[in-house]
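Let's practice the habit of predicting before peeking. Look at the sequence and jot down your guess about where helices and strands might fall. Then scroll down.
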Amino acid sequence: MNSTENKNGKRTRERAGIGFTDNASAKRYEMDYEDGPEIYSSKFIDLQGYQAEMYEDIEKVYLQDEQKRFDKYVAGKMKNEMRREAKLDLEEENRGKLEELKMKLKVDWAKKCAEEKKEEGEEVVKLREELRAVQEKNRMLEEELKALRGESGRGEVAADALLSLTEGVAGGEGEK
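Done guessing? Here is the structure:
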């Protein structure tokens, strides 16, 4: 082996330079090389085959584990996605039902308002008819009053009394 002494007096291996030889590639074991004796090379090939099988088994187990992890991950994601979609579907369904109820409520409210207006309209018509009847009665009484004034000279006193009576009657009926 090529070696030199360093400053401390220790021997070190030469790394480069004139006369450098590297013994690292020297054959230490005959099994390491296929060009050795026949028995060693066949054992080496067998060991290489065994090592390849081990690597394949390790790869298979690793891939199975990775596949399981991936399947679990995908299943979890799909489960979350399905839950989210179900929630959205439920919200959409609820929104539709809410819209239906809202429309039904609007229709019911409109019907109720129409009925109230109809009742109010009927009441207004009834009140108008009563008003016409009172006005007609008032007009007839005024005509009688004029007729009485014209017949008698003292009709003014009687007419005033009758007028006060008619105003009381008209006022009493109008208050109803």
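How did you do? The helical segments are 38-151, 155-175.
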